[in-house]
Amino acid sequence: MIQQFIVENFLSFKDRVTFNMQPGRGSKLKNHKAEPVKGAPVLKTAAIFGANAGGKSNFIKALELGKRLVLQGTRTEELIEFKPFRLTVENKSKDTTIIYQILCNDKKYEYGFSYNADKITSEWLDNITRKTTHCIFKRSNDNSIDMPLLLKKNTKEDEKQFLQFFAKATPINQLFLHEIYSRNIHDNVSDISDLEAVISWFSDSLKIIFPDTPYKQGVWLKAADDNGLKHVFKALLEYFGTGIDDIYLKEVEFDKLGISQDLQRMIKGDMAKSPHKEVFGALKLNDNLYLIRVCDGEINAKKFMTIHHQIDSDAKEYFSLEEESDGTKRLFDYIPLIIDFIYGNKVFAVDEMERSLHPTLIRKILDLFYAYSEDTPCQLIFTTHESSLMTQKLLRSDEIWLLKKTKDGCSSMNTIDKSFNPRFDKKLNQGYLDGEYGAIPNLASNEKFQNFLKNMKEKKM
């Protein structure tokens, strides 16, 4: 779980911004708190509100950045993807910094790095306890890497030499953690469990969902052969009132889907990176969903179909996903996510959660999240414009974040709890729409725009 996340000099985030999931003093909705590590309570939910172009999507992109650089890295001889705040000369030449404080494997870790287009200028991983901070490794601007805790846990001389050689060989444009992830070094060391725990958190726990991202759709392939899982999906489809009776996966030839050769190579290459023998993926093409499975180097594809019963007979009708409503398509992204609520140990970061969904369905998803994650360490962080969700009956005031952008284009964020300390019975959503808390568009205050409209109207008359 995330306890704290820090971003600096990335897209609209000019200055250092701290996103903190530690609970405030409020006593309402106690089931919204978890304690995966003793003495380190965290909130399960964060709802981020703000105007269009305020920086909400940039915040999710910042969360996703570390995951991508750790797991995918940067290709040899390529520049690192560097997107600083560009509206000041100073920031364009300043490093971007990303820091995660996470709770996993009964430990608290801080993993952070700074970088520019050419190189990783610093990188570190610490284990934080109540009494002290243990440095697992620290990378300096000259690309040297100190590893006090790693060397302490790997006491043999050949292990120490291997780790030091491995660290020295890390390219300047690559994270050390990515090098550990992409190369099998288990046979040469005794204990890199701290590194593996953090890498596993990025690969298995942190799940980023953008508006057009199909989430973990490989689980539908398993549902086709798993009757228990299929019953769960059917129950959820009924719960959300989709009118769909079942799902069907139609086998298709991957090579005949009309995918370019370059995209085919990229898909096969990305899936080949997985250490698992069997790999699942998803591909959206022409508004349809194809589920991809690679096993022993062979790639298979199935087209996702829905089943409806005719109202005047027992016959079945098969629909392509493109024939379903936008809301139903979006629900199919969320149903696998809901299944993961039950298993726990996940952090879901969802951009524009309300996209194509009725507010009632969003509340149903949140109700399911709180019901099924009560005894499991799960978090749901999402951005939204849906003001009806801004109520203390649904969310704690320290779970409601306001993200604002200044006239200079700089994004900042804080909880409504810290910024305004509203009464527990305050109707927050109405106050938000009335502009009491900011973080909304304010076209009416733009005098030049109002005068322009007035002149246009007078000319027509």
Q: Which blocks of ≥5 consecutive residues have pLDDT under 50? A: none
Top-tier CATH class of the largest domain: Alpha Beta
Give helix % range: 25-40%
Strand fraction: 25-35%
Number of domains: 2
In the sheet with the most strands, the strands line up as: 2-1-6-7-8-9-10
* Overall body shape: globular
CATH architecture title of the largest domain: 3-Layer(aba) Sandwich
How many β-strands, per DSSP? 20
Structural class: alpha+beta
Mean pLDDT: 84
Give the end-to-end Cα distance, rounded to a whole number of Å. 61 Å
Backbone CA Rg = 24 Å
- Number of alpha- plus pi-helical segments: 14
Major β-sheet profile: 7 strands, antiparallel
How does this model look, in words?
The chain has 461 residues and is an alpha+beta fold. The chain has two domains: 1-211 and 351-461, Rossmann fold; 214-342, no CATH class. The protein has helices spanning 56-71, 89-92, 148-153, 157-168, 176-182, 193-205, 218-225, 227-239, 261-272, 326-343, 359-372, 416-420, 428-433, 447-460, and strands at 2-8, 17-20, 33-37, 40-43, 45-49, 96-104, 107-115, 120-128, 133-139, 145-146, 206-209, 246-252, 278-285, 288-295, 298-309, 316-320, 346-350, 378-384, 400-405, 411-415. The strands form four sheets. Strands 2-1-6-7-8-9-10 form a seven-stranded antiparallel β-sheet. The chain has a six-stranded mixed β-sheet with strand order 11-17-18-5-19-20, sandwiched between helices. Strands 12, 13, 14, 15 and 16 form a five-stranded antiparallel β-sheet that branches. The chain starts with a strand and ends with a helix. The mean pLDDT is 84.
